[in-house]
Amino acid sequence: MDRLIVSVSGVRGTVGGTLTAAVATDFGCAFGSMLGAGSKVVLGRDSRPSGAMIKNAVTAGLLSCGVDVVDLGVVTTPGAALMTRLLEADGGVIITASHNPHPYNGIKFLQPSGVALPATQANELKEIWQSGKFATQAGLAVGRESVNSRTHPMHIDAVCAVTDVTGVAARRFKVVLDSINGAGCVVTPMLLSKLGCEVVHINGRPDGMFAHTPEPIEENLADLCDAVRKHRADIGFAQDPDADRLVVVDEAGRFIGEEYTLALAAAFVLSHRKGPLATNLCTSRMIDDLAESAGCEVFRTPTGEANVVEAMLANGCIFGGEGNGGVIEPRVVPVRDSLVGMAMILQYASETGKKLSELAADIPSYHLVKTKLPCPLEAAAEVISLAREEFAKNPEAKFNDADGLRIDLADGWINVRASNTEPIMRIFAEAPQLAQAQALVGRVRKIADKVIG
Ligand code: MG
């Protein structure tokens, strides 16, 4: 199924299919009309080859509405968010389809803080786009374009400002980095070198030719695990194409799971400071256990980075993120940032003197099974409603509709929801034992198979 997905997370479609230069220009016009002539927008893109086409099209739309555009070039998503704030822009745009493969690209729109648009503004933008009524300007009133190539050093400075650079550098960590030929290719080794690391870089050409399926999950990271073993490294890091997500491989070359990125970073933060944390409803209970031991509260939100960030800002959270490897340190930038995640985990290893496998083993473990299946958006509601009926048979079941359907049971939980960026359904379940978690997923999977056929 090929359709343009327009959601609170932005626009995503297939390049030359649903996401054409004309569509991208219209979204540029819509965002420009919303902000108004005389505004300033910061624009960055990930390294995928279609990025130049989409960037130029969005830029044309913005300029035509009298908006000035600052082109950051190929930068990470957290880098673009940081620059939106530092350059005091009226908004930001990032051209990326994150972990989606080549056929896809996307456009994300940011507030002046660097955070994605809130739902009300995302809806307003969609309405302007649908209306096709744009506030285009004539002659000298069109916008001006400029280039800014300071994103990488500014980002590194922001991360180092909250990191014990000398302490980490003293350990001379050996790190294997897999940047998937994405937006993290240039800035990440610069940061790791500053942190005194010896870096073995694989997939480090920022040409957007993804060397493996881009989502940073175990099945796609065999080369990284092998390289960690071969080079006898202390740790392996994998980024997604726009470098907001981070996944960690331990010193034995074992993929320890993207949920551990957030848990390890949370353990590090709580070893220094106390305060509330925030994460989404699909993230492992590990963070709750860590927060409880530290006497801190965890706010749970619907899935979507913007929801987590909103809860963080509303509750003065010192840390937050998502179990997909998304670490948010609000003092650097209020979006997921693989670079600050690396700095935190390296500093944690440095301060404790422990290996990655030992740090992971210190955290109470659960089995979180994550599955996804192709599912038309229309069928998702029926699957969710039937799942509710199925689990209503469990007298202890508690239902939460904040994000798809989350069902909490005495010894685990399950979440069933439709993606808002792809025609897929995700079924996650967590329990102390793997077989329990698999059985929970199996109960919903059976329902989904019946509905979808
Ligand atoms: Mg991403």
List keywords for this structure.
five-stranded antiparallel β-sheet; globular; binds magnesium ion; Alpha-D-Glucose-1,6-Bisphosphate, Chain A, domain 3; TATA-Binding Protein; alpha/beta; 453 residues; 20 strands
What is the SS-derived class?
alpha/beta
Question: Which CATH class of the largest domain?
Answer: Alpha Beta
CATH superfamily of the largest domain: Alpha-D-Glucose-1,6-Bisphosphate, subunit A, domain 3
If you compute it from the alpha carbons, what radius of gyration comes out, rounded to the nearest whole angstrom? Answer: 22 Å
Instruction: Provide a count of the helices.
Output: 15
Instruction: Tell how many strands the DSSP assignment holds.
Output: 20
Strand order of the biggest β-sheet: 1-2-6-5-3-4-7
Percent of residues in helices: 25-40%
Unreliable spans are none
**Roughly what is the average pLDDT, rounded to an integer?**
95
Largest sheet: 7 strands, mixed
The unique ligands bound to this protein are: magnesium ion
Q: Give the count of structural domains.
A: 3
CATH architectural grouping of the largest domain: 3-Layer(aba) Sandwich
Strand residue percentage? 15-25%
- CATH topology (fold) name of the largest domain: Alpha-D-Glucose-1,6-Bisphosphate, Chain A, domain 3
Distance between the termini: 16 Å
Shape descriptor reads globular
